[in-house]
Amino acid sequence: MASNSIALRLSGMFALVALLVFLLIGWALYLQVDKGLGLLPAAEVDARYSVLESAVQRYGNPEHWTKINAKLKLLSEEDKRLRFWVVSDNPTYEFGNPDDEIRQFANGSLGMRNLNLRGHDYPFKVLVSQFPPKDQRPPLRFLTAIDTQTFWQTQHSLLIALISLAAVGIALASALGYWVARIGLKPLLDLSLEARKLAPPRLSGRLRLSSLPPELDQFVTSFNSTLERVEQAYSRLESFNADVAHELRSPLTNLIGQTQVALTRGRSAEHYFEVLQSNLEELERLRSIINDMLFLASADQGSKATELTESSLAEEVATTLDYLDFILEDAQVRVQVRGDASAPIEKAHLRRALINLLHNAVQHTLPGQVIHVDIAEERNHVSIGVANPGAQICGEHLPKLFERFYRVDASRSNSGANHGLGLAIVKAIALMHGGTVFVRSEDGVNTFGMKLPGMSD
Ligand SMILES: Nc1ncnc2c1ncn2[C@@H]1O[C@H](COP(=O)(O)OP(=O)(O)O)[C@@H](O)[C@H]1O
Ligand SMILES: [Mg+2]
Fold this sequence. Notes:
The chain is an alpha+beta fold. 56% of the residues lie in helices and 16% in strands. The protein is rod-shaped and about 165 Å long. The structure holds adenosine-5'-diphosphate and magnesium ion (MG).
C-alpha cells in the first residue's frame, strides 16, 4: 500500500501540473480568439457597407432606389445575421421599417456603434453613415448592422470546448501519470521484495546493486552496510553466548566434582571445611563473572555515567591503591603516580576501571619492578594510563584486547579472578563517560588507559 501511495501522489502531481498547463494555454488561447472574435463583426459590417456605399451615393431618383431596396432585401435574406435600415424624411427612400427606436439610434453619432434592440438578447454591431441629398433624394442615414449572436455563441462554445478538453487532459494525465509512476516504482517494489527475504537466519545476504537504477544506489549501499553491522553484531552475540557458557562451565565443573568426591564416603569435619572453602571460591568466581556480565549488559543498553563529580584523578588512584594494598605487597611491586588532572567522573565506575587496569598491570609485572600511573591534561580531555614493564604485545592482539573474553594467552590467565572481561569493562566505563580507551606496547613498556572528557566549561 505504501508504494501505491507514492504512485497516487505522483499521479496527483501530474494532474496538478496538467491543470496548470491547460489553464495557462487555455487562457492565452481564449484571450487570443476572443480578441479576434471581437474585431470580426465590425470587419464584416465594414465589408458589407463598402460594397453598397458607391451605389447609394450615386442613385438619387426613386427608380434606381427600388433597385437598391431589392439589393438590400436580397442581402438580408441571404444572410440572416444582416440587417439594413435607411432612415429619411421621405418614406420612399426608407428601408427596413425603421421604428422609433431605430430612428433615434440613427440620429445619434456616426460611425461604428452597438445597438441593443428591445427583445433581442445580443447587441447589433451597427455602422451609421450619412449621405447628403442627391437629385430628388433627401439626405439619409444608412445603417448596416450585423447580429453578434453567432459570434457570442462561437465564443461560448469555444469556452466549453476548452474546459472539456482540459478536464479530459487532466484525467488522462493523472491516469497516465499513475501508470508511469507504477512502472517507475517497479524497482522499488522489487527491492522491498528482495529485502523481505533477508530475515535474521539469512543475514549474510545483501541487496544487489547492479539491477537497480542509480537513484537507489545510496539507499542500497547504506542498507547493505547496516546489514553488515547487524551481521557482525549478531555473530559477536553468538560467540559471546558461547564464551559465557564456556566461562561458567569450569567453575561449575569444579564445584560438582569436589562435591561429588566429598560425598563418596564419610569425611572429617576438616575435610568438609576445606571443600566448602574451595566451593566458596568457585561460587565467588561465578558471582564475579555474572556481575561483570550484568554491568556490561547495562552499559550495552546505553546506560551513562550520571552521578558525575569533579574529582582529582590522582586522589582516586591513591584511594584505589589503598584498596589494592595487600595485592601489591604480595606481588612485591610498587606503583608511582605521575601528574594529576581534574575531570567529571562517576567515582565508583572510575575505581572499578582503575582496579581492573592495576590488577592486570600487577599480574604482568615481575617482583621488584615499578608500575607507573600517568595522568595528563590534554586539550579537551584528560588521559590516565597504567604502564608496566613487560614483554612486547604482538600488534595483531592490540586492537582486540578490549573485546570481551579476548586473552593473549588464555591458559596462563584463566584462573582466579581472570575471566577476560576486565578490559571490556574498562572500555565500557570509558564509553559511559563519553571517552575512549588506548593501549601501547613499546620499548618494553605496556600501557593501558582511558581518555575522558575534561572539565566542562
Ligand atoms: N598490563 C598488561 N600487560 C600485558 N598484557 C595485558 C595487560 N593487561 C591486559 N593484558 C592482556 O589483555 C588480556 C585481557 O585482559 P582482561 O580483559 O583484563 O582479561 P583477563 O585479565 O581476565 O585475562 C589479558 O588476558 C592479557 O593478555
Ligand atoms: Mg584482567
